[in-house]
Structures are given as structure tokens and as C-alpha cells.
Design goal:
By secondary structure, the protein is of the alpha+beta class. 32% of the residues lie in helices and 23% in strands. It is built from twelve helices and 21 strands. The chain has helices at residues 4-26, 35-45, 49-59, 63-85, 92-109, 120-141, 158-187, 190-195, 262-265, 299-306, 329-332, 388-391, and strands at 86-87, 90-91, 247-252, 258-261, 271-278, 289-298, 314-319, 324-328, 339-344, 347-348, 358-360, 374-380, 403-408, 412-413, 416-425, 431-438, 443-445, 447-448, 458-466, 469-479, 502-507. A five-stranded mixed sheet has the order 4-3-12-7-8. β9 and β10 (347-348) form a beta hairpin. Bound molecules: the ligand Nc1nc2c(c(=O)[nH]1)N[C@H]1C(S)=C(S)[C@@H](COP(=O)(O)O)O[C@H]1N2 and molybdenum atom. Molybdenum atom binds next to loops.
Length: 508
């Protein structure tokens, strides 16, 4: 037998070939049918609230990269073992590869929107991998014909084995990269999106009052650019939904089921509104929050056309990727600017933010309202249906808690006049006051920037005469109803973090 390093390498490149070929086969089917994507999405769907919160709090929006790295490590280890235990007469390694194939096929067939063809990438990939592993291991097990009589022992043609391994490795990498590149090309809606012309809003958002933006270095700007906007979702491969393929079905406990195409929307009255979106996973002081101007169609008007039954109390919005969010029907119809949005900051929605259409609801955390790639509004009841994150341990209702964040100063500053500044939010209630506390001193009023809408965050600043030493700066906000944000410290699970933000500042 050749050394264990070589045999492990045989397993690793064979498994790599399975994944590479599968990426190629997945091109005409769907990006989600490729093994790593299908398996990763299934892992994500089985992530309980606490693990998700740990991943997001530890890795932020890099959570998906971490998942891929973890899956890659497991795959390499399993493949190495498969190579080590494979023998020409006892194909245990092949059995491991086949077992992996079965698990992935089950995962792929269980994905939302999957058909039987979703099994093909994995089946073809694994069959090829087993065939190649058999050939490589036979080479590694059989001594070369011209055994050196002098040494008396079996000699393996090491160079021939290494060449085989390298060849398969290259084939794996090439097919993988090619598959990924082609897949992105074939299904991408990027060029279609570039052609989309948004309708001029019948009711444009009023121009943003310059006094809403204090323009202080390190303070988050009032409007968040599309490229800077935080992204949170469960999608490993971004859904590519063309406007021709998109429709919105409003059904369930309604008098008349309706289905709207993208073209139907252009005949409707569009509005443009400023709304700050917040993620329930945003820790105190975190940056999973952003403010944009959204162009869209009022949900209360759309829902009224369908005629929800009086005993319905939930709108379960479905995404094309299987994600769901449950919003209180009363919240969507109480007159606030809850939107079916198609535009973000003057552009068609970016693909990662839900192109071609998503929901935006002022006052509710994203996980219970902001469904991207939305395709259905199911009118139902909270005691009959559960949304995606509620099934995984998060609260069924997710009103946004009043919060504030200190953006500056960061780190060390010189003694004297120091500007403390940040943002505060209580969407749909508005912000009435922000107070700042230095160490254990009294709470002092901060100055507020203009508030163009109660549905957005509000900037604030406080001028501090800082004496040398180490200080703790805290802040708290009061919402439009006069309620001061709670000092009670809560973790993000199950319904959002609370507590005052604090920042250690070294002065001098
Ligand atoms: N289809 C889909 N929509 C989704 C999610 C998701 O996982 N899938 N996540 C929600 C969550 S938790 C949040 S906070 C917002 C984030 O929207 P953004 O990525 O545009 O900032 O989208 C919501 N909509
Ligand atoms: Mo979220």
C-alpha cells in the first residue's frame, strides 16, 4: 500500500471532483441544487435561535462564510477518511461517498421549489467520484510492474499516483469554478435589473431636510447607501427572480384571492417613503440597522382589495426561497406606510435586498415583516400558522424596541470639548429625546437632528467637556409616546436586545 498521506489525498480529490462536477450539472438546473448550497441551506434551516444569535454576534454578516468554511473542513476530513479506508477489494471509502450522496440528495429534494432534477448534480458527481477513487486506489495498492528486485519490496510508482491525484484535483477545481461562473451568468437577473425603469412615485418622499444629517465624522449618515446597507437572510445562493417570472398572490382568509404580476404594479399608485429597517439580531451598539427611501405600493390598499376576513389577524408573507414572516394584520392596515417595495434609494431593489419585490414595514423587526423576494401574502391567524423564525425559537411578534447607539467618540480623545453623537430609533413612534450620562453623573439632554419621519432613526449630538482619565459614556432615548427606553439588559433572543449602550472613552 502507498502511504496514508497519498491515500487520504485520493479521497480528498475524488470528493472535490464530485463537488466540481455537481456545480457544472447544477448550471441548467438551479444554483440551489449544487451539493454545498443544498446542504448549507438545510443546515441554516435547522439552526435554532441561540446558535444563529451566537453566529451573528460572533461573525456578523460573515456568518455564511463561516458556515462554508465549517462545511469545507468536515468535507475534507470525511473525504480523507474515505480515501484511507478504500481498498480495491473492500470499497468502504466508496460507501462513505455514496452515503454522503444520499444525505445531500435528501437535502436537495427538500429545498423549496426543488424538483427531482435537483438530485442530478449530486448523483452524477458522486458516481464520478467513486469511479475515480476506485482507479486511484487501485494504483496506490498495486505495486508497479517493474518492482525493484534489489530492495525485494513492492515499489509503488509514486510519481504515477501523484500525477493521478494532481490531475483529478485540477479537474475538480476547473469544473467547480466553471460551474459557479456559468451558473451565476445563466441565472443572473443583474442585466435585467439594470434595464428596469421604476415608476415615478405619485407621492414622493419629501426631500430630506439637510438638518436631519449632522455630518459628524464617524456618525452614521442619515440615509444608508444601498452598498452599505446591512444584509441578513438565510439565502446561500441569492434568489434570481425576473420581473416576468414574479407574481404576488394574496390568498387565505380573504373574500377574493388576487394575483398581481409585475406589470400590474405599474398601473397602481406608487409611494416613496423613508423607513429604517432593524434586525432583531442587532445587539446593543450593533450595526444591523439602516435607513433608506423605499418606493412601493401600500399594503393596506392591496390587502383591502383581497378583503381579509374579520377573524384573520396575521399576514404570513412567503419568499420564493421558503422564508416566511408573520406580521400582525392590524399593523399592516393601521395607516402606517407598510409597503410592497420595488425600489431602494432611487434604484430597483438590489438582488440581495429582495429584487424584484419585498416588504418594508415601519415599526416591526425584519424577521417578522421585511420578506425579500416576496411571492405570497397568506392571510391567516397567529394561532394557526408559524413563521420561519418563530418555529426556531424567536418570538411570534416583533415590534421594534426603542434603541440608541453611540457612534462617536471611538477609542482615545484629547481632553476638552468632545462631540458625542449617535442615532436613536423607535420606528413609527418617533424619538422625542436622547440623554447622555458621563460615568455616574446626571442624565443630560442631547441635541436632536431634524426628524423627517417618525419611521426613521434620528441623529443626536452632545458636547462634552471631557476631563483626562477613563470615562464611560451612556445614552438612552425617549420615544414619541414619552416612554424612556428600558435599562433592562436583554439578549437578542427571543424578541430583540435592550439596555443602554455604553462606550469606554480614554481622555488625554
Ligand atoms: N427571503 C427572506 N427575506 C428576509 C429574510 C430572509 O432570511 N429571507 N430575513 C429577514 C430579516 S431577519 C431581516 S433583518 C431583513 C433584512 O433585510 P436586508 O437584508 O435588506 O437589510 O430581511 C428579512 N427578510
Ligand atoms: Mo433580522
Amino acid at each position: 500500500m502507498a502511504g496514508s498521506g497519498l491515500r487520504a489525498a485520493c479521497g480528498i480529490v475524488s470528493a472535490g471532483l464530485a463537488l466540481g462536477i455537481a456545480e457544472l450539472v447544477a448550471v441548467p438546473i438551479a444554483a440551489g441544487s449544487a451539493p454545498m448550497t443544498a446542504l448549507g441551506s438545510t443546515v441554516i434551516d435547522h439552526t435554532p435561535a441561540d446558535l444563529r444569535e451566537w453566529t451573528i454576534s460572533t461573525f456578523g454578516t460573515g456568518d455564511k462564510t463561516v458556515l462554508f468554511i465549517a462545511m469545507g473542513v468536515v468535507a475534507v476530513l470525511a473525504a480523507a477518511i474515505a480515501g484511507l479506508v478504500e481498498r480495491p477489494a473492500r470499497p468502504l471509502g466508496s460507501v462513505i461517498l455514496a452515503g454522503f450522496g444520499v444525505v445531500v440528495v435528501v437535502a436537495a429534494l427538500g429545498r423549496p421549489g426543488a424538483g427531482w432534477t435537483w438530485a442530478l448534480p449530486t448523483v452524477v458527481g458522486v458516481v464520478a467520484a467513486i469511479a475515480v477513487l476506485r482507479v486511484l486506489v487501485r494504483r496506490a495498492a498495486v505495486p508497479a510492474v517493474d518492482t525493484d528486485a534489489e530492495t525485494g519490496g513492492a515499489q509503488f510508482d509514486r510519481r504515477r499516483i501523484v500525477r493521478g491525484i494532481a490531475g483529478v484535483g485540477v479537474a475538480a477545481a476547473v469544473s467547480g469554478f466553471l460551474g459557479r461562473a456559468l451558473g451565476t451568468r445563466v441565472h443572473s437577473v443583474a442585466s435585467e435589473r439594470a434595464q428596469v425603469r421604476l415608476p415615478p412615485p405619485a407621492a414622493p418622499a419629501p426631500p430630506v431636510d439637510p438638518a436631519a444629517d449632522l455630518r459628524i465624522p464617524d456618525l452614521a449618515p442619515y440615509l444608508t447607501g444601498n452598498d452599505d446597507f446591512y444584509r441578513i437572510d438565510t439565502a446561500l445562493s441569492l434568489p434570481q427572480v425576473g420581473t416576468e417570472d414574479w407574481s404576488l398572490r394574496i390568498h387565505g382568509m380573504v373574500d377574493r384571492e388576487i394575483r398581481l404580476s409585475y406589470a400590474d404594479l405599474s398601473g397602481r399608485r406608487s409611494v416613496e417613503r423613508l423607513v429604517t429597517l432593524t434586525c432583531v439580531s442587532n445587539p446593543v451598539g450593533g450595526d444591523l440597522i439602516g435607513n433608506a427611501s423605499w418606493l412601493g405600493y401600500r399594503l393596506d390598499e392591496l390587502l383591502a382589495e383581497a378583503g381579509p376576513h374579520p377573524d384573520a389577524d396575521m399576514v404570513l408573507s412567503h419568499s420564493i426561497d421558503g422564508f416566511t414572516a408573520g406580521s400582525p394584520l392590524a399593523t399592516l392596515t393601521d395607516g402606517r406606510d407598510a409597503l410592497l417595495a420595488v425600489g431602494m434609494n432611487g434604484q430597483p431593489l438590489p438582488v440581495e435586498h429582495g429584487y424584484p419585490a419585498r416588504l418594508v414595514v415601519p415599526g416591526l423587526y425584519g424577521y417578522v415583516s421585511a420578506t425579500k423576494w416576496v411571492t405570497e401574502l397568506e392571510i391567516t391567524r397567529f394561532d394557526r400558522a408559524q413563521a420561519y423564525w418563530t418555529e426556531r425559537g424567536w418570538s411570534a411578534r416583533g415590534p421594534i424596541k426603542t434603541g440608541t447607539r453611540i457612534d462617536t467618540p471611538r477609542g482615545r480623545v484629547a481632553a476638552g470639548r468632545v462631540t458625542v453623537a449617535g442615532v436613536a430609533w423607535a420606528q413609527h413612534r418617533g424619538i422625542n429625546a436622547v440623554e447622555v450620562q458621563i460615568d455616574d453623573g446626571p442624565w443630560q439632554s442631547a441635541q436632536l437632528a431634524a426628524e423627517p419621519s417618525v419611521d426613521t432613526w434620528r441623529q443626536w449630538r452632545f458636547d462634552w467637556d471631557a476631563a483626562a482619565g477613563n470615562h464611560t459614556v451612556r445614552a438612552r432615548a425617549t420615544d414619541g409616546s414619552g416612554a424612556v427606553q428600558t435599562a433592562e439588559v436583554a439578549d437578542v433572543v427571543p424578541d430583540g436586545a435592550s439596555g443602554y449602550p455604553a462606550r469606554m472613552v480614554r481622555v488625554g
